[in-house]
User: Fold this.
Amino acid sequence: MDFTGKVALVTGGGNGIGRAACIAFAKAGAKVVAVDRDGAAAEATAGIVRQNGGEATAITADVTKAAEVQAYVKTTVAKYGRIDCFFNNAGIEGKVAPVIEYDDAVFDAVLGVNVKGVFLGMKHVLPEMIRQGSGAIVNTASVAGLVGTPNMPAYVASKHAVLGLTKTAAGEVARQGVRVNAVCPGPVDTRMIHALEEQLSPGNPEAMSERYQNSLPTGRYTTVEEVAGMVLFLCSDLAGNTTGGQFVVDGGRTATGGAVTNLAPKR
Assistant:
């Protein structure tokens, strides 16, 4: 998967999966643009890329604001001339609570980032890809976009929506040389999963982590590098006729219906 001479734009690039994708794209030869509402985190990612001999730019932007999305697209094109790969990744988890108790403002915030942010990203990146006659977009959905998860109504609703947006956009631009797919991670070893563990078991999040990991067929969380690998594949020429798809990286969770399959200790 050679991305020499290509430009990769990544939202949520300041940490977690986004940072891992930026680093992976750069190692494969791409020029990288890391976008995050936390400007210092985005700059830290760009710094890591540069320290390893790559080229990177950091941009501070709120993906829920159309003007700021337009600005990160305009800045990328002004500096590098094109956008070959767009990892539309920024997302938040919200709170753990049943539907009847879920806070309206939190619900709006989750859908704002996870759905509107994805929509705005595609709305403003797609014209550039259509203009150049090529490009690949990967939206970050989740296994929560494939199955329900009790007590996470906003997150689950948002990730189902991402899959709908992905399929819709893919059909619209397939004849114009642009591909749109979604990656569906299961539990990934990032801040997000550990924040959820803390919400679920405030007094003993470590026990919740062990229990959850033991419930997965592989017995562990997915790594950020493993998700980044799928993203690069979907953006590469190896996936040249792949569009409108949803690609699971979840240690077998959805294959077993999310059930507890193995409570034996991890080896």
User: Anything to note?
Assistant: The two ends are 32 Å apart (CA to CA). Residues 235 and 266 are 33 Å apart (CA to CA).
